[in-house]
Amino acid sequence: MATVPDHWCNIPELSGLKKYVAKNLSIPTETTFDGQLKFSQCFMYDFNYTNTSNISSTNVDIVPCKNGWFYDIDNDGNSVVSEWNLVCDNDFSVILALILLGASGLIGNYIFGYIQDGMGRKPAYFIYLLIQCIFGIATAFAKNYVLWAIFRIGVGFTVPAILGTPYVLVTLSIIVWAIRNWRWMSLATTLPFFTLFFHWWALPESPRWLLAQGRYEEAERVLHNIARVNGKTVPSNFITNHRGKKMLVNNNPHDQKKYGIKDLFSSRNLRWKTSIVTFLWFTNTSVYVGLSYYAPALGGDEFLNFFLAGAVELPTYLFLWPAMERLGRRWTLCISMIIGGTSCLATFLVQNGKYLDLQLFF
User: Fold this and answer.
1) What is the DSSP string of 35-65?
2) Which residues are listed as membrane-spanning (predicted)?
């Protein structure tokens, strides 16, 4: 959606020439960080292009683009970058939109946490879904960058629900490869969500939430249905025992206290643990998003890179699930972060060469 296609200064007087001829006449070259020469994307020779016979690249001023840019969308397709010229002096606009997308996801976590606890998991899920659909459709019809960024913030509220799902990234890369227009891509990745509204009649409320709210009859019906589908039975005294424990809690004035976010910082131990968990969440999310979005920029086929960035996660489940059962969540998290952090740091050892891309995927 926000891919940056190859671009260079637009010279209306040279529009009748082939692209490579026009670039050679009007665009200076620059040296990249790895020592390679490429045509500048933001500067041009300051010639009088109405008379091409006197054009010479010696002793001529180099100036910023005067007439916008020409985008090579044959390979990359149309994106918000090419539609609204979010390049050169405006290139931070894309990064800003990505930052706002992530920040809204953080806010969405807190907001929907309250909605889930207050209204239930089922209503919260469909509210989440409705927001995704509304802002996803609105994104496709954005008339300018500001509206597009606002709509992406709305979509960002729903990002945490799907961010860490590798098969979503794999599927998304296929959709993006097939649909090169960002507006159609927005519709293609949003419209299928409308079919999920039909799950309202099939999706039960969370039994855990029902039990916490004291709605024992509803919880019992849901649990019996789940057990029946899985060929299991619910112990006859399960609900009775839980009801008894709930009554004991209700009779204890201390246990009836309402807890909120400020209680996470009420003691030194809780402050320490809350800070650690928050830091881990922020770090993992930042690195995950960074690597996922950086994958297309590794060189070669950007669609294949994005596909591989999601595909390489799938085998990790062969380790994670057994590890969580045997080692527990804490040790599994520590081992995973050590491996991931070491792999990221290892990229500094090889700044050039064919093994750099492999290290980033690892």
Assistant:
1) S-EEE-SSEEE---TT-GGG--SSS--EEE-
2) 92-112, 124-142, 148-177, 184-202, 272-291, 303-324, 330-350
Contacts of 303 by beta carbon, 8 Å cutoff, 6+ apart = 173, 176, 177, 296
Please name which of 130, 128, 129, 126 lies closest in space to residue 109, comparing C-alpha atoms: 128
pLDDT digits (tens, 9 = 90+) for 308-323: 777 777 777 788 888 8
Contact 3, 302 (CB under 8 A): yes
pLDDT tens-digit map of 202-245: 888 888 888 878 787 888 888 888 888 888 887 777 777 766 66
Secondary structure tally for the chain: helices H, strands E: 17, 6
* DSSP per residue, 62-78: EEE-SS-EEE-HHHH-B
Among 218, 239, 257, the domain boundary falls at 257
Q: Are residues 103 and 140 in the same domain?
A: yes
To the nearest whole percent, how much of the chain has pLDDT over 70? 80
pTM: 0.74
The domain in which residue 161 lies consists of: 93-202+264-311
Cα diameter, the chain:
95
- Please indicate, yes or no, whether residues 197 and 59 belong to a single structural domain of this protein: no
Looking at the fold, whether 158 and 228 belong to one and the same domain comes out as no
Tell me, yes or no, whether 174 and 292 share the same domain.
yes
Strands 43-45 and 62-64: antiparallel
